[in-house]
Structure formats: structure tokens, C-alpha cells
């Protein structure tokens, strides 16, 4: 079979110059160049498989090098160990040879004599130690006995000191008793008592005069009190009347004020709901760009260029409008009525809270859908249960959308099957869920629509609603994909049906049922938006479509706020009117209270004048009793003077006896101290003798230990001399073994190193071959690409000998066609074959 030579991009691996069969005449040098290039095409091409095979060979060569390097390192370690062992064996051999040279009969005899001498010296040292031990024991016994004598002398001193202290105390007490007997004081008391009696008599006379004056003053005081009481009674009645009126007016004021407080609380709740309204904005340019993105008028298959151009233009406009929409919506409107204290388990939210969060999401989405003119969302019991069941399945299987980067299609589909929304026998993908990753922080986002992820999270109603708001912004305005945006905005909530006479017709759903839920798996949280359009419902569906009224109704919330404001203001007007009445009543009461106070002050002032008669009578009685006591004191002072003179004589005699006893006890204490000093000096002397004996014992024990060391050393020297020949033979044997092991280790290392060098050379060769093939392959690929580009405007022509060439696909005119010299062509083909 004849081989065809393809000179055509897409078939040849090298550059080809096409034969010019049309157009200008062919020059000889052109033909030659063309044929030579065509000849190289017949070479075996470098394929990707060839390059891959060369790479695998090079990698295997490198693996062999790596393995052999490990062997070389191990052999090097063994060689170093053998060298060290040989050096140590050589050192031991040298020492053994030196010891054999020393092991003469004369040296051995000397060593034996040294052992005997050392043992004799050890026996002498042991005797010295025993003698020293006896001396230490004897000296310690003497010290112990003398210590007992000293302790006995101290006890005698203690007894004598106690006797001296007792005698001194007796002297002090006797002296104190005598000193306490103040003779002059007794006489002074007698004189003073006489003077007091005279003074007290004068005081009694003065007190009688004051009593008579007080009785006259008290009569005038009573008359003033009776007059002030009349005025006070009248002002008290007036105050009572004004107080009653003030109480009535205050009750009326408190009633309307309490009503104001109730209405103020209702207003604040309505105001918080009103201030918490989230007014979602989508700019017209963004709306139009997203609609164009979804509704491409061109066919993807038949009008691909126009389709791509339209698609890219829509994306460009979406990106351009994105930031303005982010900044217009990223501010979260906090509703202060939302609890930010109670924390929840993300994976087990209460059903009522989940329902409210679904309503909140529906309220946000419906603002967007109203702008886009797409179906509105509503919340039903089934839409909430659908997402709850689906997310529970995902959590149970530990599905983490953060890391899987996908929806849990199986859980969504199986839940849809439960409601009869899809065929249980036909597994489909995700047609219901939009998912967004979230964090639970109670702070706003930055200008890019993100919140700084840092610090502890808190899952509360307020942070959950903020996460829903953030997710909607992320769906609509993330700036890099718009699949979620088209779904959230409702542009995909429609179905296509065939209508007779009209063909396929798209129809938006009447309503879309929404439910949301949160999950947190492996520390990663996300919010799930599940939607079910009316086109998903069938006659077999068990999906409940009865809506649950959405509390997030802008019109209702606004009206409630306006009504609450009006009611609050009307209540405030009633409070203001009652406040005027209250101020007037309070003023009248204050005036009556002030008048009452003045009257009471006047009465109190009259009553505050002290009653003088009782005090004056008491004073008269008091000074009389003092005088009676003074007379008794004077009688006692006279009797004390007589008894004093007899008592002083007895106390002086007792003091003299106590002083004589003290002198005797002090003398006995002095003698006992002298005895103690003598015995303590003896104890110090004996302790010195004991310490000296202990020092001698320590010295003797040191000498004994040195003698024992000398015996051991002499015995070891004798043993080394006696065993020197055997040790020398052992050292020679060890040295010979070490040398042999060193030789074997060096041979192993040399062989391993040589093999490594060979493997390195082979690896470098294989690597070079691979690089060369890779370079050729890359070059051929580039040329192949160029030829393919050229081939787009070429057609295949087969020459008479079977050679295939590419020529322009535009047919020349008859005038342009040159005459073909068949002989020249045949000659050219013969030259190619040569």
C-alpha cells in the first residue's frame, strides 16, 4: 500500500511549504526548498506519549539515585564507626604491650610485697580507729554527766530566784500599803467637809427664792398657749379642705397619666417596628441588566457570537451597577423590639421563630420582586416544614455547604417527594434552594457589604434577621455571579407550556411559597431559602398553600405607627389639661400648708417656753439633799481622823519584817549562781576534750580509707602484671578484627559510591533526553497550531504519486490557471523519493 505524505496543518508535525500549483510559475529553488521540507515530515513525530515515557524513565533514574544516596550515607556511617573502633583497639593494644614489658618476675614480686605492706598498714589504721572511737565515747560520757550537773545547778537557781521574787513582792506590798495611808489627806477631808456644809446651806436659800419666781412665770406661759391654739385649729381645717381637693385632682391626673404611659409604650413598639422597616432598593439600570442577563434573545447553539456578546454586555452592566446597589442596601434597620438577649441553637430554631424569619425574608424578597414585576412570595405551614425537614436531613448527614461548595440535592429532592412535588422514581437536582453562608454578629457591614469576621457570635432573633438581610444582599449583589440574583428576584419563577396555535409559552407562577431555615455544621453556618412555585404543584401534592399572614406589612406597620402617634398625642393633651388643674390645686394646698405651718410654729413657740416651776422645785429639793449628805460626810470625816492614828503604827511594823526576809533570800541566790558558773566552766572544758577526740577519730578514719585504697590499687597492679600476656593476645585479636571490619566497610563504601556515580550519569543522560524530547514536542505543537490555522483556508489535493498537499480553496479563473508540466512534476517526485 502506498504511503501518503501529508503536507497540511493538522497532519504534519513540522513546517511544510505548499507546492504552488496555481498562481505564479514555480522557480527551481522554490521547488527544492519545498521538497526538502516535505522530506523531514516523514520523520517519526515526537508524541505526548513519547515525552511522558521519557519523563517516567528520568523519574525512575532519579528514584534510583535517591535510593543509592541513602545506601552511600549508611555505608559512610559504618565506615566512620569502623575507623573509630580501629583507633580504640590500637590504643588498647599499645597499653597491653606496655604492660607486658613491665611484667618481669622482679616487678611481680615487688607488686606482691606492696600488697602485703598495704594490708599491714590497713590493720594498723584499723587499730587506730578503734582506739579513737573508745576515746570519743569516754569523752562524750563525761560531757553528758557534767551537763546533768549543770542542769541541776540551774534548777537550784530557779528556786532561789522564785524565793527572792516572793520576798520582794512582800516588801512592795507592805510599802504600798503604808504609802497608801495618806494622813494629811484624812485631815484635809475633814476640813473640806466642813467648808462644803457651809456652802450647801447658802445654796438652799438661793433655790427657795428661784422657786417662787418660776411659779409666777408659768402662769403667763399658759395664757399665751391657749390663744395660739385657737389660730392653729382654724388653719388646720383650711389645710384639710385643700388637701382633699389636691387628692382628687391628683387622682384624675394619675389616671390620665397612666393612660399616657400605656399609649406611649404602644407608640414606642409601633415606632420600633416602623423604624425597623427595611426599604430595599434596586436601581433601574441593575433591573434592566439582570433581566437582559436572564432573557437573552439569541440562540446559544445557532447564534453563539451574538449570544455571548449580549451575555457579556449584561454582565458588564451588572458589575458597573453593583456597588451602588450594595451601598444603598447594606445598612440594616434594627427593630429594637427584636430580642437580642435570648440565644438559640442554630440547628433547632423554634417553629414560631422560623416562621417569623421566613416572613421577614418574604417581606424583603417581595420588595425586590415588586420592582422586577415578578411573582410575590408567601409563607405557609408547608413551606416552613419543607425547609425544616430538608435542613434536618442535611445536619444529620453532616452536610457542610461551605466545604462541599454545593447544595444537598438528595435531601431537597427527597423532601419534595414527600409533598408530591416531584416524581419519586426520577431523581432530579436542586430546583428549590438558594443557600448563603452567614455569621451571627450584631454590627453593620462595610462598604463592600461584608462584616469583619472576628470575636464571638451570638445567635439571637436580631442577629438571625440581620443574617437574613445580609444573605439577600449577597444573593442579589455579590458582583461575580447572578444565578442566585435571578432566582431571588423571581425572574426564573415561571414555566413553559405548549399552547395550540402559539407554540411554547412562558408563564410566571401565580405565587411562590417561601420558607427559610439556618444550619451550622463543622462550625460553618448558612441560611437556606426554599421556594416552591405554583407550577411545581400537582393534583397529588400534599403541600399546604394556605398562607400565614405576614406581620411584616409596610402599609399596616406604617398605619399602626401613625395611629399610635395620634393616640399618644391626644393622651398627652389630656395630661397637659389635668396638669394645669393639678398645679392650681397644688398652689392652693401649698398656701394653706404654709399658713398651717406658721400657726403651728406660733403654737410651738408658745409651748416651747419652758415650765419653770417643776425645775425650780427639783432644784430646791436637790440642794437640800446635797446639804443633808454634806452633814453626813462631815460626821464620817471626824471619825476617820481618830481611826487613822491607830492604823499607821501597825503598817510600819509589817514593812520592816518583809525587808529582813528579802535580804536573806538574795544572799542564798548569789551563792547558787557562783556554783552554776563553776559547773558550766567544767562542762566547757569537757566538751573541748570531746571535740579533740572526735577530730582524732576523723583523722584515723581518713587514714584507714586511704590504706584500703592503697590495698586495692596494689592488688589491681599485681593482677594486671600477672594477666598481661593474656590481655595482650586479646588486644591483638580485637585490633585484627577491627582492621578487617574497617577494610570491609571501606570496600562497601567505595562500591556504593561508584554505583552512585554511575546512576548519576545515567540520570543526567535520561533527564537530558527528556528535556530534548519535551523541547521538540513543544516546538512541534506550536508549529502544528500554526498549520491548523493555515489549514482553515486550504483544501486537500492528492498528487499522482499519492502525495497530499494543501491549496487555497478559492478556484482560480481559467486565465489564472497555468499550464501544468507533468514531466516536471514527476521528476520532482523522483527527487523527493531519493
UniProtKB/TrEMBL annotation:
<feature type="signal peptide">
    <location>
        <begin position="1"/>
        <end position="28"/>
    </location>
</feature>
<feature type="region of interest" description="Disordered">
    <location>
        <begin position="83"/>
        <end position="108"/>
    </location>
</feature>
<keyword id="KW-0732">Signal</keyword>
<protein>
    <submittedName>
        <fullName>Transposon related peptidoglycan linked protein (LPXTG motif)</fullName>
    </submittedName>
</protein>
<feature type="coiled-coil region">
    <location>
        <begin position="627"/>
        <end position="790"/>
    </location>
</feature>
<feature type="region of interest" description="Disordered">
    <location>
        <begin position="211"/>
        <end position="242"/>
    </location>
</feature>
<dbReference type="InterPro" id="IPR027607">
    <property type="entry name" value="Surf_Exclu_SEC10/PgrA"/>
</dbReference>
<keyword id="KW-0175">Coiled coil</keyword>
<feature type="compositionally biased region" description="Basic and acidic residues">
    <location>
        <begin position="211"/>
        <end position="233"/>
    </location>
</feature>
<feature type="coiled-coil region">
    <location>
        <begin position="568"/>
        <end position="602"/>
    </location>
</feature>
